[in-house]
TrEMBL record:
Organism: Pedobacter lithocola
A matching Pfam family: ROK
Protein name: ROK family protein
Record PANTHER family: BIFUNCTIONAL UDP-N-ACETYLGLUCOSAMINE 2-EPIMERASE_N-ACETYLMANNOSAMINE KINASE (PTHR18964:SF149), ROK (REPRESSOR, ORF, KINASE) FAMILY (PTHR18964)
SUPFAM superfamilies: Actin-like ATPase domain
Gene3D superfamilies: 3.30.420.40
Amino acid sequence: MEKPVALGVDIGGSHITAALVDLESRTIVQNSIERNAIDSQESKEVILKAWSEIITKAFKKSASDVKLIGIAMPGPFDYEQGISLIKDQDKFKALYGVNIKQELSKRLNIDAANIHFINDAAGFLQGEVFGGAGRGNSNVLGLTLGTGLGSAYCEGGIAKDADLWNSPFLNGIAEDYLSTRWFVKRYQQLSNNTVAGVKELTALTATDYSATRVFMEFGYNLAQFLMPVIKKNKSDLVIIGGNISGAFTAFSPELIATLKGNAIDADVKVTKLKEHAALIGAASCCDATFLHENTADSLGNEVKSFVNKG
């Protein structure tokens, strides 16, 4: 019997990555990853042509005649209809109001019903729940920490964008304190020295107390941010991804200690799938059995909650 395979696609402001995903083992098919740089300032035709070329190239590595696609896209976006609503950001302006699902269906000669979309932050968490650090957990919170702050929550195995980046926090918004620029700014304040980013700062922790202090403060701040979110969503697991997750061992002791000290029992894990998470999460949107089972579980939980309240 032929293995169920879908194409996972991760689209960002400067790139497109595509890979075949084995929906049975929930892993990337070996040597199937295709990636290319994209100029998001280009015209509609140039962008769609570039996307179609990478998708076509990746599909050539599949033996299956059935073509299923899951695409992780940044918002704002109508994920059900496949229409781009990105307008006031410095990317993909030429695609505003364009039905991407219909355009790709036409260019790739694939039934539009076989093309699915998911928010990029939700795609990361969906991948981790489908085949990564969150597998087997139904109530999970996911954060991608890097140049910006991505967030998603998962109920009953289905991930959704949490859109927490601009939540009021300390003297500004969450992203002011939970992104790369905070590390650079805070280290400069403490040491009068400049550093390129978090990776470079991590290398200094063995000999530079200011660097160590920055990570301790970050772990404490992250815990303060997470506590009300975990309580509100009743999350039993937090998964952290993005470039800053590479420094997890530097900030996690303070993060975990602060959560435990405030009676928050949720586990905290670093991403297992890393840059493959969104690809696997996007492809999982094509797994009808997984989606049906988890949607049913979610509805079941809602019914139980309603009965208990009554």
